[in-house]
Amino acid sequence: MSADPQRQGRERVILIGTDPENPRGGIGVAISGFRTALESLGLFYTLIPSYNPNVRGRWFWPALKAAPKMLRAISTLKRSGLDPVVYSHAGAWPSLVREMFLLWLAHLAGARTMLHLKSPMVDEYLDHRLGRPLLDIGLGSVDLICVLTPWWKERLSSAGVAKPVVIVPNSIPAELEVVARGPVGGGSSSHRASGELRILSMARLVRGKGVDVVIEALVDLPNSYHCTIAGDGPERRRLELLASSLGVMARVTFAGWVSGEAKYHLLESADIFCLPSTRDSFGIVYIEAMAYGLPIVAVRSRGIPDVVLDGRTGYLVDAPEPLQVVEAVQKLADPKTREQMGSAGKLRVMEEFSSGILAGILRRVIDGLN
To answer: Which domains does the chain have, with CATH numbers?
Structure first.
């Protein structure tokens, strides 16, 4: 990409993606950080939700409503002598189809377009005999592809994707930056005096997230280890039955879907964050946990090692297997180790995933749009 001096300063960004007021998953959480970063640069124009998990027809109805709003915003900016940039954040199918459709419309309307790929399923689409051609067609109207970590940039390059690709990580919301600047262990800790250790797993309860592995790991962990599972989804009933059949139900709390203060309270009162997921491309929940000073146990999968630094901000296991998770969790039994890794995690969040860092990256990316 090469910057055009005649266009710099005229760009205004129309952000589209999951409604941040109704987040279910990483995109809904992350998009608030992108808005904050763009606002700090004076580049933000409007946010138009294209997905709301709480409405009927959520997969496409919000996008159909978003389309005319987006086109009006593009027209308004162009009439004002400004350059519209439509920046979409997409998950897996059907999210990807939805967002590429909106970017196609934006391209036809004369806007420049950016697509942020955020689903681990993209890894599979690149090799799929039907998924790859569809992906290539959808990318035809995209000026710039954004990915979350260096691993993803290399993956697209090795797959022969010809579009320009830049690394733009997720960032945490502004309120979590305040937490990240604070000391480790600043929250609720009354349970620690009794020797109890609290493991937190937080995710949508679907296959591949590794929550079942955490439950199985409890069998080989001391009785002083308790696990809270925050999230909901089609796997919840199976996970409850698994915990019961393994005899660890008394040490597992199913908190359901949490957000806002309830979510932050769980992060504040935990000792270890454990999510051995193979279904994440980045895992914004890992940086949320690091902001609270929690050491992480995760899997060495796709871009996760770019986020969680093995031996520094947590431990990475080679596969989502209970005994590997047990070994990693037991390494964190030492309070000093947890404190050191928690401090390193907080520092990493501020150095790599704060809104200020994201703003600098977005400034360079948008200045370089052709």
So the answer is: 11-171+354-367 (3.40.50.2000), 175-352 (3.40.50.2000)
